[in-house]
Design a protein that fits this description.
The protein has 342 residues and is of the alpha/beta class. Helix content is 30%, strand content 25%. The chain is built from 13 helices and 15 strands. Belongs to the zinc-containing alcohol dehydrogenase family.
Length: 342
Amino acid sequence: MRAIAFHDVNDFRIEEVEVPKIGFGEVLLKLKACGLCGTDIHKAIHKTVNPGTVLGHEYTGEIVKVGEGVTKFKIGDRVVGAIHVPCFTCHYCQRQHYTLCPEFRETNIDPGGFAEYIRLSEKHVRHLLFGIPDSMSYQHATLAEPVACCIHGQKAAEIRPGDNVLIMGAGPIGVIHGQLLKHKDVSNVMISDVSSYKLSKAKEFGIDYTVNIKNDSLKDVVDKVTDNQGVDIVIIAAGVSSLLPEAVQLLRRGGRVICFSPFEKYPEVTIDAGRFFKDEISIVGTYSVSPYEFEEAILNISNGTIDAEKMITHEMAIDQVGEAITFAASPDEEVMKVVIVD
């Protein structure tokens, strides 16, 4: 089968590899579509994975083989799933921090979503594989994983009716957050970015206020919308560490910042630590997705809460993965979400 392997920056190779063999409780999936995630772009550009790695985790496809002991699924089922599975029994799992489980990062699909077939382990099949409606296209189903991640993040935000929410970053994750928020009883949703194109797309999704920080003061907009009170929630959906101190400044008393992007490759920042005591603010990080958000994500795509048709702006072939990453990473391109199809 064909698999697209990362070897270096701008060096993706089409390789012929054996179709994975499945064992007890496992299934073999024929990939139909796989979304290109910001983390795929980050890994490819910053070389955080080993040469030979097959990226891609927003996968969906058709089951073509089932192992002995599989009763939940059958050949021909259309499914979508996640890449990591927790153990459900460790210290972190018992406290519902499933993504911190030591086994979480050790469980993976084989080989990766940018291939013709993948093997899903018994744990994946039991806990993190879900059927998709016949009415949902494979392309739209690729959004289930990022939507589930956003649902997971918003749980940590503890959003309440009447809240004013600011999203920093109008990429795919930012606009997914925005669409989910517009279906909650919040007062206003604001989103900021430097891309006029992405902000115009955010407007199409019904987000109340868009702010191009190259041209306008974000603080002025927040002050105007909230009557100088600040926002109740800030969701940082861009991996820029300098956004964190700004987010803290824009919070209302008792507010909460949700860090939804990795900052590890960026410099340290200084925040106003006094606000933790005198204003009871909080900063919470959220990573990936637990097994308990996928069905809600599929429903949100199916019922139109997430406008999948508008989200997916480009489809590219599996042998164009390298081109797709370069294209999606360019700040000059008018692109929201790229899906790889076979």
